[in-house]
């Protein structure tokens, strides 16, 4: 599963806020570079949390953050201005366009324009080739939270209906084809075991299926460790010794029972996700005490382990 996902050209990562979506986006991109591919992370959050994590300033153009790994902030207005630089001849004319009140009003008022331009930027970069670059590159889009992301993914179809055969309509058609090309594009979801995340993941999965964008996988993040069982806890409480106080042992036992309960709830949630979606689930362990680059690197290690035990990717098929 993971090998097949990484064989795509574009990977769009969705999930409820707070489930670790950005961290996993970075880890997936970094994993891809371990095979010699170049990877570009496009983060949609204007606050640019990944830029802060990697210690670089937010930028609307790719910034190198590690070997073969670049990062940029994806912004609709910046993408529109980049597009206009390609199609409007002459610097002075372009400057006049950007400065005009009509342009400013249009950018603010046009429904869905920013979302369309954001996906247009992904489409444009995915189609670019560099003869000096490694054979394969991956774009990982750290999408907005699920509700916003659904609006983003629905926009090309809406724009195609609205603008017909105009330039905007044709661009929307191209973007829509990219999203539905399973050889080159995949959508994955990220969730944790809490009930709100599980419910939102299942609901978003159904919505994605309804617009013919079925997710390729669900990444189940922060699974508590389960290196012990009830028998181990019972053995702990029955221990005796001059330096072992009963009160301390009972306190440790309660903590262990709580962790055991969390692990059991996570297993139930995984079963619920698999049953409700019919989609492969990749399990990511919880790493308490780690954050930032250290957490990303630890997840990369986990993913690399998963990848080593998977078969080589099969050729993806068209819908």
Q: Keyphrases for this structure?
A:
single chain; 319 residues; alpha/beta; Rossmann fold; eight-stranded mixed sheet; elongated
Describe, in plain words, how this protein is organized in 3D.
With 319 residues, this protein is α/β, with parallel strands linked by helices. The chain has one domain: P-loop containing nucleotide triphosphate hydrolases (Rossmann fold). The protein contains 13 helices and 8 strands. It has helices spanning 2-6, 21-33, 49-54, 76-87, 91-99, 101-109, 113-127, 146-163, 167-180, 195-210, 230-237, 246-277, 292-308; strands at residues 10-15, 38-43, 63-66, 69-73, 137-145, 185-191, 217-223, 281-285. It has an 8-stranded mixed β-sheet, with helices on both faces. Helix 2 crosses helix 13 (292-308), helix 4 (76-87) crosses helix 7 (113-127) and helix 7 packs across helix 9 (167-180). The longest helix has 32 residues, at 246-277. The model has no long low-confidence stretch (mean pLDDT 83).
* Strands ordered across the widest β-sheet: 3-4-2-5-1-6-7-8
The overall pLDDT, averaged over residues, is: 83
User: Which superfamily, in CATH terms, is the homologous superfamily?
Assistant: P-loop containing nucleotide triphosphate hydrolases
The global form is elongated
Distance between the termini: 18 Å
| Broad structural category | alpha/beta
The CATH class designation is Alpha Beta
CATH architecture type: 3-Layer(aba) Sandwich
Number of separate strands: 8
What's the gyration radius in Å? 23 Å
Count every helix, treating DSSP H or I runs of 4 or more residues as helices.
13
């Amino acid at each position: 599963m993971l090998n097949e996902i990484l064989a795509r050209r574009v990977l769009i990562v969705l999930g409820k806020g707070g489930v670790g979506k950005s961290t996993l986006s970075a880890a997936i991109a970094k994993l891809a570079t371990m095979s010699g591919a170049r990877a570009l992370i496009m983060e949609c959050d204007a606050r640019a949390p990944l830029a802060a994590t990697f210690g670089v300033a937010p930028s609307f153009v790719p910034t190198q953050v590690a070997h073969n790994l670049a990062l940029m902030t994806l912004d609709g207005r910046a993408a529109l201005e980049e597009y206009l630089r390609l199609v409007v001849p002459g610097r002075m004319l372009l400057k006049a366009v950007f400065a005009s009140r009509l342009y400013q009003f249009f950018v603010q008022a046009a429904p869905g324009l920013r979302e369309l331009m954001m996906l247009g930027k992904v489409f444009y970069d995915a189609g670019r080739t560099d003869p000096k670059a490694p054979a394969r590159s991956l774009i990982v889009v750290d999408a907005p939270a699920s509700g916003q992301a659904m609006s983003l993914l629905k926009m090309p179809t809406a724009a195609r209906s609205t603008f017909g055969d105009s330039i905007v309509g044709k661009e929307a058609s191209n973007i829509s084809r990219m999203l539905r090309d399973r050889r080159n594009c995949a959508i994955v979801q990220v969730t944790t075991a809490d009930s709100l995340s599980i419910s939102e993941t299942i609901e978003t999965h159904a919505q994605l299926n309804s617009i013919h964008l079925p997710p390729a996988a669900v990444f189940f993040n922060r699974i508590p460790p389960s290196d012990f069982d009830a028998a181990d806890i019972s053995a702990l409480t029955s221990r005796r010794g001059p330096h072992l106080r009963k009160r301390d042992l009972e306190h440790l036992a309660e903590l262990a029972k709580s962790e055991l309960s969390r692990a059991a709830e996570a297993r139930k949630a995984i079963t619920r996700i698999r049953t409700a979606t019919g989609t492969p689930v990749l399990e990511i362990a919880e790493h308490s005490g780690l954050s930032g680059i250290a957490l990303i690197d630890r997840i990369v290690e986990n993913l690399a382990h998963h990848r080593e035990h998977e078969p080589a990717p099969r050729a993806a098929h068209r819908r």
